Amino acid sequence: MQWTKLSEQTVYENRWFRVNLADVELPDGRHLDHFLIRLRPVAVATAVNEANEVLMLWRHRFITDSWGWELAAGVVEDGEDIAFAAAREMEEETGWRPGPLQHLLTVEPSNGLTDARHHLYWSEGATYIGPPEDDFESSRREWIPLKLVPDMIARGEVPAANMAAGLLMLHHLRL
């Protein structure tokens, strides 16, 4: 049962995203107008230290008016290597420079509405280089024991699905 996109046009655009309207044909021949959001890729990075603690950020998201633990993340600039972007974001948001990054997973957090792909990376260890350049991104940055992650997710302390998926994968790989 495959839907077929017959056409797509941009109805709004800025440097962060595009809102498009697609004419979609359903398998039974009916048509529907479907709005979608086109986004640049997102790069996410964290590190796990020798004590099996993962570097996380505690931050407020004004859109949902919620607090939660996250990993450093941001959009990939045009022409930028995704792993490089992940390392850059981690350094800018935490003040820690990751070691060699390993790809953890790629997820599509809301593929019924947006084409956003979130690429998650991790490193074994990181080097503190100083206060984060983008200290406005979070209230604090902490090394959290990886063994606590599943319970934190169950309690809703990691509300972002992409972050929860990455942290659970890290928990699986390391523990």
From TrEMBL:
GO BP terms: nucleoside phosphate metabolic process; ribose phosphate metabolic process
Gene Ontology terms, MF aspect: hydrolase activity
Keyword Hydrolase: yes
Domain Nudix hydrolase stretches: 38-171
Keyword Lyase among record annotations: no
Gene3D superfamilies for the chain: Nucleoside Triphosphate Pyrophosphohydrolase
Official protein name in the record: ADP-ribose pyrophosphatase YjhB, NUDIX family
Swiss-Prot/TrEMBL cofactor(s): Mg(2+)
Highest taxon, organism lineage: Bacteria
PROSITE patterns: NUDIX, NUDIX_BOX
Keywords in alphabetical order: Hydrolase
UniProt-listed CDD domains: NUDIX_ADPRase_Nudt5_UGPPase_Nudt14
InterPro entries: NUDIX_hydrolase-like_dom_sf, NUDIX_hydrolase_CS, NUDIX_hydrolase_dom
Lineage, broadest ranks: Bacteria, Bacillati, Actinomycetota, Actinomycetes, Kitasatosporales
Cellular component aspect of the GO annotation: cytosol
